[in-house]
């Protein structure tokens, strides 16, 4: 009997299932009903929903049986965990599949890094799908180790779990018809492509959609979301650690229904996931905000699968993979049973980390003089932080000037920021200022700095900034909070300068300690290091800093420190 | 400037569109709203919906702008027209694309016939997509010219406009795990496969869906439709000339919304289309029955496209093909402008008909003695007609017996039926009886006889039956009504014995005349020849007749004339 014949025999009731989940209330994602039925599983696939017997029976006892959650768009690396630890973190929360854009590691290690991550996630009970990183570098203003070429993308898109082209972040390039960007969209496999179009509206949005880009996770407002839906784009509602858009966009679900809307987490701190949940937290919050449970669940299950063309995921129905959650209620959305392909995920093997993914931080020595910001007047451009968002404001502020150099002045909440090239030890660095952080003393630094992941450092003194840079070079990457030439807290990230090799409890504790240390140094926002990491991302408005200098993202050009 | 660059320039408003449809109420199929906006078209594609200027402007004047209609499942051959004439018939009704299962011609001419139809429809303004015929023969009880082999299907599915595997009619084979059927489902390209599962419910339906078959157009009742939706199958609501399921299934749209529901016409007589419309008629009837116009339109536009993975069809939105209809109101759904890829369809070239598709009817001479039905008792199995449905009842009736032979007796509404093999002149024929036709005199015959398209003939006398057979052999195929050795009406179908080579007005008149002639001979149902044609289809319950004899479809076996 072939596996398909066996599946049909089980579906007919002629053979016992491997497992029957009996007596649950099963969500039909297709009709948005709760059906009182058994679910028969064979070879990891649902054979039938009805009345069934099996070799193993698990009593659902009236609990809710729903499909495993699918994260429609996320960056594995942001969680700072190796993939096996990531699986240990999110599987118990009901996330059974993610669609990852591995562009962080792609910036650090090129396509080799992506292939490694693909291989390292092959055998996990957390199913990891990928999109091929479309924008390495994210813009011409960023310096990854090397750009991903067309050939790299083609090779990636031939792999089995690579579904298409990842978020096309160079939206000005696409809209303006840049041949280099359009060429990527015409690759085989790139018919399926994720978008990234912060703030884009009107005719520009029509152009972006006309290029065949049919999703966006950067909508912040109802109006942005509405235009995207009308233009035929899927609305991926993002609830990242520092870009929480769920509440703002839920009115669209109330108005139009959950159609063509899916949930994603984009970038999540590990401690945020530990504290607030993962995709399940989005479902919980949506339901708490008044969305029907079935509708909220659709956006976390069937809809991510539909958007990504995952034809056998996202439903509890015959022929679908048996990724099943048993929920005790429709409030907390913390499953008390998680089945991946019909089995309780057991021992997850440790990911192997080859030596070449560890040796990635190369920095030309930086001393305080290298961080000097000579000015002719008193005014400087300053990056204005926007609480809980990845967008920033482009401000002009009067700096404290000492000996013809603009310096950090916590008194006026204006502190220095630097981005140091860290892949090829070129010594290239960019200098800017940040307004609104609250930082009073010490320095914070990180080799997680989107998207090129050069080293970003902010500080109240140049000395603490250079100390922080040196410490990260020593660690081979990580995040660190320093004060007065002393480490206050740190989280080493030796793998590509992005990932820890420690168990999740350690990483969560370290991440939490770093955030607390930053708050101890005066930082006001909830997510100091994520905020810092996004100050280097030159494709999100309005003012950002890379190793090449300040980037006016709205005009898409480098600008001088002095206005 | 590349075409994509040009499209983006138009979308941005930097270049004039080829055409702007100005001032309409544009349906957003994604939000189910009517937007007051212009539609900019360039190179046959929608560049943007907003405020646009163009080289040519067409004033919509407040009319409704909707996507062209897409028939989710149909058999081109049933309309009896060459594809160019079919386009002339349905384009003015707003059908701009169809997904055709060419299994009629496949039964007559093998894959050669399908490739010919594919080629013949390549340049039409009516876009014709195909599914590869999965079941030639439809069952082991039918005799096409030759079976389609796996290799034929593979070759077909490599063609550009072939989207997947057509309706898997051998549902007992699939459900039972027949290796020959499962092999087809595992072909490359067969991930997308249409279903055909009349009356299948419960565990059998779970098995059918578990095989990966995710649509069905055979649901007749709300309960059947509901089970299909819950099992993750698309519900293709069919409104064929003799199988009208719309009204019965619309309550599902009211209950669940239009999601995963699409419209299809399956088999339509040309005169039915002329009188009642095509897909547009389904939208009209749905709206008349109380469905919201936007919901009804979704089932005729976006949803067929979604089911078939036609990523750039079914919407008026950037990047979608500019198949646009201008509707004066939301009642009649007869467009007063139809644009295919942004242009009014003009002169449609005549399809060329090579000689080899004409020479298809080969019949060993049949005389009245060949039609004799010797019996030992008086009871015979009889096919019970069900008004306006393709299903039949399996009855037992007392026949009029003369000289030990059961004969037609219009007095008891029980007349003789025969199916004569017509591809290879084997002389093989099957004999049965029909109850409930009303036929009083003469005979009706057709070389359109699903799916093998052998010759089917029903008659009040053996003599008129043999005369009708001889006449069709003479014509090289067609349909004919005869009485007393004289043709009352006929519609020659010399192309494969399925299609006319005449203009649509002629075919419509002939088809109408044949149906009227049948009514003149006493036939009661609305669609005499379609009904006749389906009496030979051995995959629709309950009792059918092929050249091999009577088929009990429920038990899926041949049965004797005498019970």
Distance between the termini of chain A: 75 Å
Q: Greatest contact pair? A: A-B, 56 and 56 residues
Which outline of chain A best applies? globular
Please, what is the oligomeric state? Answer: homodimer
Tell me the number of strands of chain A. Answer: 29
Strand count, sense and barrel status of the largest sheet of chain A are: 8 strands, mixed
Key terms:
homodimer; alpha/beta; eight-stranded mixed beta sheet; seven-stranded mixed beta sheet; 29 strands; 27% helix; globular
What is shown here, in short?
In chain A, strands 18-17-22-21-24-23-25-26 form an eight-stranded mixed sheet, with helices on both faces. In chain A, strands 1, 2, 3, 4, 5, 15 and 16 form a seven-stranded mixed sheet that branches. The mean pLDDT of chain A is 97.
What can you see in these coordinates?
Two copies of one chain form a homodimer. Chain A has 563 residues and is an alpha/beta fold. The first copy, chain A, has 16 helices and 29 strands. In chain A, the strands form six sheets. Chain A has an eight-stranded mixed beta sheet with strand order 18-17-22-21-24-23-25-26, with helices on both faces. Chain A is globular. The mean pLDDT of chain A is 97. At the A-B interface, helix 1, strand 3, helix 5, helix 6 and helix 7 of A face helix 1, strand 3, helix 5, helix 6 and helix 7 of B.
Secondary-structure map with pairings?
The structure is a homodimer of 563-residue chains.
Chain A: H1 3-12, E1 17-28, E2 33-42, E3 45-50, E4 54-59, E5 64-67, E6 69-74, H2 83-90, E7 95-100, H3 103-120, E8 127-132, H4 150-157, E9 162-168, H5 171-176, H6 179-185, E10 193-195, H7 202-210, E11 215-216, H8 222-230, E12 234-240, E13 243-244, H9 246-256, E14 261-264, H10 270-276, H11 279-288, H12 293-298, H13 302-307, E15 324-327, E16 337-339, E17 379-385, E18 392-398, E19 400-402, E20 405-407, E21 414-420, E22 429-435, E23 443-446, E24 455-459, H14 462-475, E25 478-482, E26 487-492, H15 504-520, H16 528-534, E27 543-546, E28 549-552, E29 557-559
Parallel strand pairs in A: 1-4, 1-5, 6-7, 7-8, 8-9, 9-10, 11-12, 12-14, 17-22
Antiparallel strand pairs in A: 1-2, 2-3, 5-15, 12-13, 15-16, 17-18, 19-20, 21-22, 21-24, 23-24, 23-25, 25-26, 27-28, 28-29
